[in-house]
Amino acid sequence: MTPPRAAEPGTAAVVGTGVIGVGWTALFLSRGLHVRAYDPAPGAQERLHADLAALGPFPGHTGPLPTGNLTWAASAGDAAAGAGFVQENGPEREDLKHALFAELDEAAAPGVVLASSSSGLLPTTVARGAARHPERVLVGHPFHPPQVIPLVEVVPGERTSEEAVEAALAFYTALGKRPVRLRAEVPGHLANRLQAALWQEAYSLVERGVATVADVDAAISHGPGLRWAVLGPFANQHLSGGPGGLAHVLAHLGPPTERWWRDLGEVTLTPALVDTLVDGVHDELGDLDGPALAARRDAVLAELLAAKSRTELP
């Protein structure tokens, strides 16, 4: 067996170049890394270059990306060979993850972190494919678009070493990301579970006819969502309690809040509800072009992140 090639400092592998992989590639290139990319889909290399060229400015980068530092690999193993960090973005299927991580584990140099962008699979499950070095496998879950949103959820598995966790945290931090380490594995990790809780009640309110899709979007984007973009739910709740802070809020509003919890809806995504939600989005957005709306959103996010960077916040 040929030993793995030594890791090259300043080189990252991006395996899977769909929506998330494009974002990671753009971020890595913008921060001066050399990127070795691979995706087995037909035409993936051409799409990656086209998608990178179509990206607008994002925090920490303006102008064309240095695509001269981007190399297309012949396989997932070829991408991982010599890389100093591996970011995997394949489909959310256990069998495919296992096959992919077996190849990455075989090719990557010992000690190189193998991070999965999986939005819901547990790292212990993903690591079953890495028989040689499961201790270097973890989840490094970004939020779309990865080149814009700072959050990365770093989730170790049962056999992940502390060295791998620390290396991942340091790597993402050096890129300007805001990594959050989870203390336990749960399906969906942290932020997706919080989103799922909101979606459940949002879907229920629409299904029950309490509000339209547009009403729900407005209630969040013009209400608590503005505060949540600056401080998290606990910090904002603490501020709403005045001098007494969170203790005052929980003492006085805790009991009614518990009653609201008991009244929250449980929903099933029936075909009728799916049609209602999809039609509601179409009614809300009308003929507004999706990419154009995304570009506007990202421009506002960039201004918000710039403002946050100038302000001392938790």
UniProtKB/TrEMBL annotation:
Annotated 3-hydroxyacyl-CoA dehydrogenase NAD binding domain residues: 12-183
Entry superkingdom: Bacteria
InterPro entries: 3-OHacyl-CoA_DH_NAD-bd, 3HC_DH_C, 6-PGluconate_DH-like_C_sf, 6PGD_dom2, NAD(P)-bd_dom_sf
Matching Gene3D superfamilies: N-(1-d-carboxylethyl)-l-norvaline Dehydrogenase, domain 2 (1.10.1040.10), NAD(P)-binding Rossmann-like Domain (3.40.50.720)
Residue ranges constituting the 3-hydroxyacyl-CoA dehydrogenase C-terminal domain according to the UniProt record: 188-256
Known pathway: Lipid metabolism; butanoate metabolism
Entry keyword annotation includes Transmembrane helix: no
Pfam families in alphabetical order: 3HCDH, 3HCDH_N
Keywords: Oxidoreductase
Keyword hit for Transcription regulation: no
SUPFAM superfamilies cross-referenced by the UniProt entry: 6-phosphogluconate dehydrogenase C-terminal domain-like, NAD(P)-binding Rossmann-fold domains
Similarity section: Belongs to the 3-hydroxyacyl-CoA dehydrogenase family.
Name of protein: 3-hydroxyacyl-CoA dehydrogenase NAD-binding domain-containing protein
Organism annotation: Pseudonocardia spirodelae
Top-level taxonomy: Bacteria, Bacillati, Actinomycetota, Actinomycetes, Pseudonocardiales
